[in-house]
């Protein structure tokens, strides 16, 4: 880890930010078209973020600020670990478990600062977010566990390379269809998209953890949201859709999956948090266990 | 429009004002009968998201406070409290004649008759109640005002805070009240 | 129709009613002296008028009286009975009916706030309900001038026409 | 040479502490601090003498690396917690004997880890069990002590029986020698294996025997709970290692049925470990008393440690050894933070507290770093050990253990966050407005623990080096380290890189934060309340039933306590029935039944 790594990492972060924010802008237009209206300009998301960063804001104490900075720092660190297509900023560090747990640093920072604001809406939102995490993460980790055992490597680029050997048919979403379905559903939960977004419900709990954030803090939380979306969607692209031989291929797959999920989320209602947990522990967990069982014991799809 | 006096803002301010103009988040405080005009303005026919505007859940996150009609004394106290929770720079848009001069309730004992006596109003929309076309036109004007840096109501509120407070106390006796339901 | 006649006969028999009106088949207006009001209401409640739809007051400032109007409703027969009584305006004090209709608690509080009629026995009725920090005359009384109050409390915007549209008079 | 001084010093120290506290209680407490720190220093100095043997009176001791490592963890936890004793002197019924028992149990644990033969092992095991049994009732409830003692005795009686059995088979009492003949006799090996591991299960608090943990930790004196959960639980791990490592379980059970490549006996225990992870997590999520919550988290982490030890492979075993250390200091730090809150406010109930950060920021930091390590989140040590355990499981493809491990690690985010949000953050009640922060003497151990957790999270090299030596001694291939990255079969973890990248991210976020305008400081009550005016902070603090929607899902759950209570009730009923049958007030009936039984026995005897 020398200076070059850090400069390279910073550039990848910038590229991830620019790509993901434009994609969110385009998706806002797609969603608007779904609702038969024109929708904002494609660079509206940039304007929103920079406007929020340019405003003044109120703070509730050092925990409130420290939590936001720790959250954004943790999420940026995770984004550095994620290979941007074939490019890797930090060598040999794209281990799935490291990424899953460094992601938790961001979540903890955000939860800490939200509760530190003293607003019960925020604490309710955080308790729902953590329960939601307990729901969507278990099936996902089970499927990932199966993949690691099957191919004896837990590095993202390694798994992506294995998939690319078999060309299109080599993709894990084809060889392990159940695992692919579970991954897409839990990605919907990770992103906090419609069926599983009870923890940021605007009307119900006044946007949950983000209730007390304004101006600068809100801008940083928008950045956090963009980076965490980048992390989660590229995790699925690397694991199940063959990563990216070239940056362009990676970005195209990424955009298609994200837009697909956005459309799906736009037509779905919102689960109550205990309904979300029961749903995740019925269908996806069963699929995940069956998939892992097939991989480990039967060895189907691995040869 | 007053002629543009020498522009005092630094370049950084101008860029920030460009961002602030094209992304205004709205604190949707449905105070009066004008609130029903907002849904058509937001949905497919008029779609105010084209202008970069959208509803937000809490005053902390919002930039513009829309007062969409008459304000009784009780609601005015809550509106002032919400306004003070918003982050600078913030703007206030008064809908309809009730905020201008009391409208049809000018002689009522319960409703205030002039909004800019209590809050710095950047923009009024005439009408009782203004239709979505008028609202979209008003938002367009607001965007131009912010871009040129003329929407300085929030600074005016900060500088003459005691004048505003005097007016508020004259009309409402107290702004932060203890009510029976929260003991 | 017959249930209405039976009701009117029965009430006339029991109570000395000052006046009885029948605006339509479903409505009966009964005036009674304030002393017998409670007896009439409890009788009506016993005979099926379970719901107290409204309790309000009317300010007859010329006769210097308040008129309390109780509207009770019978779900089975669908008949409204408006029981009315008059109170002297200057010392408007009356006994609460929460014993008969517990729901009247908020109505009495409302009437007290807007007319100033005191209801003994309902301690809640003296607390403010809608008007926060109100210290003027109760606003619904006729001798209260809302316009003067509004002009004093909420300063007007001076109406200065910035421009007068020139209207061409067409012959 | 230094180690026998160490053990003797402990027992002398115990007596001196007792006598000193007769004179002045505070001095007695400070004596415990001095002696436990002395033990720590002696231990570190004695590093070079690993492998030496010594005897005290008739008991033989042998200094092994694993013994040194375990007692190092134990003494560290004892030393850090000793700083808190002086503040609880006035709150205890028998403070003098508390000081005595505190050092007495410390001596017992150190002696246990260095025991060479089974008799010494059993003696020191009993010393620890008895001394901690007398300390636990000094807290709130005596019932906890009774439950604690009964379950510990199940373990110690099993060990005694095992020792007797081993003596009869192998003739010697020396640990290494006694287990040797079992290699080629699978049936007997299974019996001995289950008997010895019973003591381990009871002490770690694995599923059927976890009942005493929340009771004892919840009601033990605030200053003994960290030792109980951080330290004493590790004794069970030592016995579990003994029954798997020293008794070569894998060779002994080669013949028997294997599930996913693991002998059925060991796999059955791993299922118990997995169940206790899930059970510990679910129960910890719904606790309202912070101490019970951390107690249940010890049950969950005990499950991790047991699974790691039972696997006896390069990664999971190293992970569980490191998790032993991380869990010890992390749960000790968490308990100490809660003890500070209890010292100031008098209660550990989460729903009665709130906003403690404004009164005791250092305690908040300690608790935060402790739970980051408990939950296994990167910059702290807990992540390294959990990463190793999960890599070990992935390497062997044990999917159901992995399911429980994932549930445990994600679930730990929930239950560690509950006290953080409801006790330390949120609204500060007016009655807690003038609380002072933690006293100086309490701040020292908390800072030391914080530094240790962070240091071993970023540079685990030293600890993994020791663990490598343990693995070599146990005959497993040690965990490989190159520079600062841990090489696992299917992945590499460079903790220094993780920390530097995290620091780099934090730096960028800080720069973004600093670039913008300064923000306006606003009180805690000036929050968004949909424009309503609020004046009562307690009403506005979200503390009780933190995960209500999730808790509702498993509200009616079967519990071991109810099962045992039912069992006890049936036993009581049977007794009453017999009593009524035999000792009814008509003597004739009693005489009749006695004759019937005598007849059956005699005639029956003839028939056999």
Summarize this entry quickly.
With 183 residues, chain B is an alpha/beta fold. Chain B is built from 7 helices and 5 strands, in the order H-E-H-E-E-H-E-H-E-H-H-H.
Notable features of this structure?
heterotetramer; A: 303 residues; mainly alpha; 73% helix; globular; D: 608 residues; 3 domains; two-stranded antiparallel ribbon; 23 helices
Describe this structure in words.
The complex is a heterotetramer of chains A (303), B (183), C (171) and D (608). With 303 residues, chain A is mainly α. Chain A has one domain. Chain A contains 12 helices and 1 strand, in the order H-H-E-H-H-H-H-H-H-H-H-H-H. In chain A, helix 5 (120-151) packs parallel to helix 12 (273-298) and helix 8 (177-191) packs antiparallel against helix 10 (215-240). The relative contact order of chain A is 0.16. The mean pLDDT of chain A is 90. Chain B has one domain (11-177): Rossmann fold (3-Layer(aba) Sandwich). Chain B is globular, with a radius of gyration of 16 Å. The mean pLDDT of chain B is 87. Chain C is α/β, with parallel strands linked by helices and 171 residues long. Chain C has one domain: NADH:ubiquinone oxidoreductase Nqo5 subunit (Beta Polymerase, domain 2, 2-Layer Sandwich), CATH 3.30.460.80. Helix content of chain C is 25%, strand content 27%. Chain C has helices spanning 2-14, 37-46, 104-115, 146-153, and strands at residues 19-24, 27-31, 51-60, 65-74, 79-88, 93-95, 118-120. Chains in contact: A-B, A-D, B-C, B-D. Chains A and D meet through helix 1, strand 1, helix 3, helix 4 and helix 5 of A and helix 15, helix 16, helix 17, strand 7 and helix 20 of D.
Mean pLDDT across residues of chain C: 88
**Helical amount among residues of chain A, as a percent range?**
over 70%
Q: Based on CA inertia axes, which overall geometry of chain C fits? A: extended
Mean residue pLDDT of chain A: 90
| Total strand segments of chain A | 1
CATH class annotation of chain C: Alpha Beta
Overall 3D geometry of chain A? globular
CATH fold name of chain C: Beta Polymerase, domain 2
In helices, the fraction of residues of chain C equals 25-40%
Number of domains of chain C: 1
Q: How would you characterize the largest beta sheet of chain A?
A: none
Reading the helices and strands of chain A in chain order gives: HHEHHHHHHHHHH
Amino-to-carboxy terminus distance of chain C: 65 Å
* Multimeric state: heterotetramer
Radius of gyration of chain C: 22 Å
Count of discrete alpha- or pi-helical segments spanning 4 or more residues of chain C: 4
CATH architecture of chain C: 2-Layer Sandwich
């Amino acid at each position: 880890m020398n200076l070059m790594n850090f400069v390279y990492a910073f550039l990848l972060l910038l590229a991830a930010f620019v790509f993901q924010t434009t994609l969110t802008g385009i998706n806002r237009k797609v969603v608007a078209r779904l609702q038969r209206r024109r929708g904002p300009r494609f660079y509206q998301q940039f304007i929103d973020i920079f406007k929020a960063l340019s405003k003044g804001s109120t703070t509730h104490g050092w925990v409130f600020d420290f939590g936001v900075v720790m959250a954004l720092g943790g999420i940026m660190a995770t984004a550095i670990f994620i290979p941007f297509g074939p490019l890797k900023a930090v060598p040999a560090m794209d281990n799935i478990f490291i990424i899953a747990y460094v992601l938790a640093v961001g979540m903890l920072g955000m939860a800490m600062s939200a509760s530190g604001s003293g607003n019960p809406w925020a604490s309710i939102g955080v308790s729902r977010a953590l329960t939601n995490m307990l729901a969507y993460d278990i099936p996902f980790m089970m499927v990932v566990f199966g993949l690691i055992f099957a191919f004896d490597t837990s590095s993202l680029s390694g798994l992506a390379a294995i998939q690319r050997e078999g060309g299109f048919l080599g993709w894990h979403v084809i060889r392990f269809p159940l695992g692919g379905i579970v991954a897409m559903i839990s990605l919907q939960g990770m992103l906090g998209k419609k069926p599983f977004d009870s923890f940021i419900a605007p009307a119900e709990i006044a946007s949950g953890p983000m209730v007390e954030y304004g101006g600068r803090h809100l801008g940083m939380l928008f950045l956090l949201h963009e980076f965490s979306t980048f992390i989660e969607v590229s995790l699925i692209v690397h694991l199940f859709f063959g990563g990216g031989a070239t940056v362009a291929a990676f970005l195209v797959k990424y955009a298609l999956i994200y837009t697909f999920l956005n459309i799906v989320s736009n037509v779905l209602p919102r689960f109550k948090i205990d309904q979300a947990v029961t749903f995740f522990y019925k269908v996806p967990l069963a699929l995940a266990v069956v998939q892992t069982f097939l991989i480990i014991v039967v060895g189907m799809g691995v040869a | 429009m007053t002629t543009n006096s020498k522009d005092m803002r630094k370049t950084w301010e101008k860029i920030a004002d460009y961002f602030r103009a094209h992304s205004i988040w709205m604190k949707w405080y449905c105070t009066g009968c004008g609130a029903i005009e907002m849904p058509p303005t937001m949905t497919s026919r008029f779609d105010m998201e084209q202008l970069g505007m959208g509803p937000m859940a809490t005053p902390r996150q919002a930039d513009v406070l829309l007062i969409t009609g008459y304000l009784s004394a009780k609601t005015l106290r809550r509106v002032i409290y919400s306004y003070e929770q918003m982050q600078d720079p913030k703007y206030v848009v008064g809908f309809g004649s009730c905020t201008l001069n009391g409208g049809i309730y000018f002689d009522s004992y319960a409703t205030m008759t002039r909004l800019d006596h209590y809050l710095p109003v950047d923009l009024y929309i005439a009408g009782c109640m203004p239709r979505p076309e008028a609202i979209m036109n008003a938002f367009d004007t607001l965007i131009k005002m912010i871009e040129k840096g003329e929407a300085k109501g929030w600074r005016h509120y900060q500088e003459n805070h005691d004048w505003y407070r005097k007016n508020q106390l004259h009309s409402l006796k107290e702004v932060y009240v203890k009510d029976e339901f929260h003991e | 129709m017959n249930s209405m006649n039976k009701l009117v006969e029965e009430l006339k028999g029991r109570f000395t009613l000052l006046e009885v009106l029948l605006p339509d088949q479903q409505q009966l207006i009964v005036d009674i002296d304030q002393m017998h009001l409670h007896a009439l209401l409890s009788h009506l409640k016993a005979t099926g008028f379970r719901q107290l739809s409204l309790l309000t007051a009317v300010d007859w400032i010329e006769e210097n009286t308040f008129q309390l109007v109780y509207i009770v409703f019978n779900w089975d027969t669908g008949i409204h009975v408006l029981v009315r009584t008059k109170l002297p305006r200057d010392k408007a004090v009356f006994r609460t009916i929460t014993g008969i209709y517990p729901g009247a608690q908020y109505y009495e509080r409302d009437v007290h706030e807007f007319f100033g009629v005191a209801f003994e026995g309902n301690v809640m009725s003296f607390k403010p309900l809608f008007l926060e920090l109100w210290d003027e005359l109760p606003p619904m009384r006729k001798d209260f001038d809302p316009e003067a109050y509004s002009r004093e409390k909420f300063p007007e915007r001076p109406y200065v026409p910035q421009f007068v549209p020139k209207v061409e008079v067409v012959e | 040479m230094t180690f026998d001084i160490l053990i003797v010093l402990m027992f002398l120290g115990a007596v001196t502490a007792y006598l000193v506290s007769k004179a002045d209680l505070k001095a007695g407490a400070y004596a415990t601090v001095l002696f436990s720190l002395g033990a720590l220093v002696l231990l570190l100095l004695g590093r070079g003498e690993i492998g030496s043997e010594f005897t005290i009176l008739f008991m033989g001791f042998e200094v092994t690396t694993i013994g040194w490592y375990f007692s190092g963890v134990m003494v560290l936890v004892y030393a850090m917690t000793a700083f808190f004793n002086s503040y609880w002197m006035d709150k205890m019924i028998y403070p003098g004997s508390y000081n005595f028992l505190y050092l007495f149990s410390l001596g017992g644990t150190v002696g246990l880890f260095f025991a060479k033969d089974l008799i010494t092992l059993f003696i020191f095991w009993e010393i620890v069990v008895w001394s901690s049994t007398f300390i636990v009732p000094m807290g709130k409830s005596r019932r906890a002590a009774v439950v604690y003692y009964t379950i510990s005795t199940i373990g110690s009686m099993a060990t005694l029986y095992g020792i007797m059995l081993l003596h009869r088979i192998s003739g010697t009492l020396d640990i290494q020698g006694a287990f040797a003949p079992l290699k080629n006799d699978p049936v007997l090996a299974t019996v001995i294996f289950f008997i010895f591991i019973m003591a381990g299960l009871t002490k770690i608090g694995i599923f059927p025997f976890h009942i005493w943990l929340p009771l004892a930790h919840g009601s033990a004196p605030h200053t003994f709970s960290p030792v109980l959960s951080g330290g004493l639980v590790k004794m069970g791990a030592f016995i579990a290692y003994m029954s798997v490592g020293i008794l070569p379980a894998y060779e002994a059970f080669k013949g028997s049925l294997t599930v996913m490549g693991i002998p059925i006996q060991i796999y059955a225990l791993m299922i118990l470990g997995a169940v206790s992870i899930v059970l510990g997590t679910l129960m910890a999520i719904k606790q309202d008393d912070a101490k019970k919550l951390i107690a249940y988290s010890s049950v969950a982490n005990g499950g991790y440690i047991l699974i790691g030890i039972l696997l006896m492979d390069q990664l999971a075993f190293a992970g569980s050894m490191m998790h032993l250390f991380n869990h010890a200091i992390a749960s000790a730090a968490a308990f100490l933070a809660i003890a500070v809150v209890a010292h100031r406010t008098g209660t550990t109930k989460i729903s009665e507290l709130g906003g403690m950060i404004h009164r005791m920021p250092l305690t908040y930091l300690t608790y935060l770093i402790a739970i980051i390590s408990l939950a296994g989140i990167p910059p702290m040590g807990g992540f390294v050990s959990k990463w190793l355990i999960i890599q070990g499981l992935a390497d062997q493809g044990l999917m159901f253990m992995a399911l429980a491990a994932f549930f445990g690690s994600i679930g730990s985010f929930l239950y560690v966050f509950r006290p953080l949000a409801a006790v330390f953050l949120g609204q500060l009640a007016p009655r807690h407005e003038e609380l002072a922060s933690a006293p100086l003497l309490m701040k020292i151990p908390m800072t030391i623990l914080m530094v240790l957790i962070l240091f071993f999270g970023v540079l685990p090299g030293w600890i993994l080096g020791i663990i490598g030596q343990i693995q070599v001694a146990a005959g497993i291939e040690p965990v490989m380290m190159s520079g600062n990255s841990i090489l696992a079969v299917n992945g590499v973890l460079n903790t220094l890189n993780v920390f530097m990248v995290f620091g780099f991210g934090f730096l960028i976020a800080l720069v973004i934060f600093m670039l913008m305008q300064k923000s306006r400081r606003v009180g805690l009550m000036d929050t968004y309340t949909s424009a309503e005016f609020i004046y009562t902070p307690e009403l506005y603090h979200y503390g009780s039933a933190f995960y209500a929607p999730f808790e509702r899902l498993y509200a009616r759950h079967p519990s071991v306590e109810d099962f045992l209570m039912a069992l006890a009730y049936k036993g009581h009923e049977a007794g009453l029935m017999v009593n009524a049958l035999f000792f009814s007030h008509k003597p004739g009936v009693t005489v009749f039944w006695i004759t019937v039984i005598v007849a059956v026995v005699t005639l029956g005897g003839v028939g056999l």
